[in-house]
Design goal:
The structure holds 2 protein chains of 2 kinds. By secondary structure, chain A is mainly α. In chain A, helix 1 runs antiparallel to helix 2 (27-39) and helix 2 packs across helix 3. Chain A contains 8 helices and no strands. In chain B, a hairpin with a 2-residue loop joins strand 1 and strand 2 (189-190). Chain B has helices at residues 2-8, 12-33, 37-53, 64-81, 96-107, 116-130, 135-146, 151-158, 162-184; strands spanning 185-186, 189-190. Chain B is elongated. The chains are: A mainly alpha, B mainly alpha. Chains A and B meet through helix 1, helix 3 and helix 4 of A and helix 2, helix 3, helix 5, helix 6 and helix 7 of B.
């Protein structure tokens, strides 16, 4: 009896292919697939793809990298390093990792302080230069200008004082 | 196990012996996930450092190798989880060697790759196909279809239930088969046949 390719059968074939490794399929299952594949193009493609996939996956699984002769030494060194790190107090570890950054920041701050407070004092203009722009006399006179009394007011004030004294 | 007990007690030489004895096993697990020696060694070292810190949790109920294998599997899975996967795999990604290999295999009766060159091409192709899967599915498929491991062995190595392993294997096999089908048929034609 020739099996007619239909949807249910095709699905059945792909289920067989996907449910387990093709290498572990029984002879009856393989025969069923082969017979059906003669008439059903999609199942033939699926079978071919499953077969080739199995070949490449087996090939990939055979790739194994062997440990080098130094691997044991490397692991033990890493283990000791890990133990040494764990034995150091947390604050000390923090300082060790951050000391470069902290030192750099301290130097930068000191440099900024020097630039801000010491350097500007040296560049302050000399008193003579200031005087050229604002003489002491004019500044004093200008400041007093608003309060300055007239000549008559000064005289009357003096004489009033004299009268009071008599 | 004596070595494990001695190592638990802080005996470094016992742990060094554990590293020597079990590193081939750990490398074998890591090789499923990575192909570059540097990455495999890095993963294996991480596994042993983790094992050392977790020695106290080994109660000796199962085998030490099984316990270490689980640590190795989970460590490698964690390492590759963050890696970006290729969203899609197309025939244009294939090298000439890979296309030639596919044609040769399709034309023949399905013999396994004989030469070293063929084996490398097949392995590259496998990596490309497996890249469509999650790391967990890759692991499952490589163990079951590649190493002929049983569902139970995969469950023990990963800590998953057997039903979860079955579902993962089914899904992974289907995805890889479909990806291979896409490769075999392109531009309305076939690679061969």
């Amino acid at each position: 009896m020739i099996k007619m390719p239909d949807k249910i059968n095709a699905r059945h074939i792909t289920e067989i292919l996907d449910k387990g490794s093709i290498a572990l399929l029984s002879e009856s299952e393989l025969n069923e697939i082969r017979v059906h594949a003669l008439e059903c193009m999609s199942c033939r493609d699926a079978y071919e793809a499953a077969r080739l996939s199995a070949v490449v996956i087996k090939s990939r699984a055979e790739v194994t990298i062997e440990p080098s002769p130094f691997f044991q030494t490397r692991v033990m060194a890493a283990l000791r390093e890990q133990q040494a790190v764990e034995s150091v107090p947390a604050m000390l570890r923090l300082w060790r990792s951050a000391k470069v950054l902290v030192s750099t920041m301290a130097v930068t701050t000191a440099a900024l302080a020097v630039v801000s407070f010491i350097q500007p004092a040296q560049t302050t203009p000399a008193p003579e230069q200031t005087a050229s722009a604002y003489s002491a006399y004019s500044v004093i006179m200008d400041q007093d200008a608003d309060d300055q009394m007239s000549y008559e007011q000064v005289l009357s004030t003096i004489y009033e004082d004299d009268d009071d004294a008599r | 196990m004596d070595l494990a007990r001695q190592a638990q007690g802080g005996d470094e030489s016992a742990f060094a012996e554990i590293v020597r004895r079990y590193s081939p096993r750990v490398f074998s697990v890591a090789s499923r996930f990575f192909r570059q020696r540097m990455l495999v060694e890095e993963a294996a070292q991480e596994v042993f450092l983790k094992a050392y810190t977790q020695l106290g949790s080994f109660e000796g109920r199962g085998s030490f190798e099984g316990w270490l294998t689980r640590i190795a599997t989970n460590t490698c899975l964690n390492m590759v989880r963050g890696a970006k996967r290729r969203p899609e795999f197309t025939v244009s990604d294939l090298t000439e060697d890979e296309q030639g290999w596919l044609e040769q295999q399709s034309a023949g009766d399905g013999g396994e790759p004989a030469s070293v060159e063929n084996s490398v091409v097949a392995t590259d192709l496998a990596d490309r196909l497996l890249s469509v899967l999650s790391p967990e599915d890759q692991q499952t498929l490589l163990m079951i279809d590649g190493e002929q491991a049983s569902i139970k062995e995969v469950a023990e190595a990963t800590g998953w239930s057997e039903s979860k392993v079955k579902v993962r294997a089914f899904r992974a096999r289907k995805k890889v088969r479909e990806a291979m089908e896409k490769l075999l048929s392109y531009k309305g034609g076939r690679v061969s046949g």
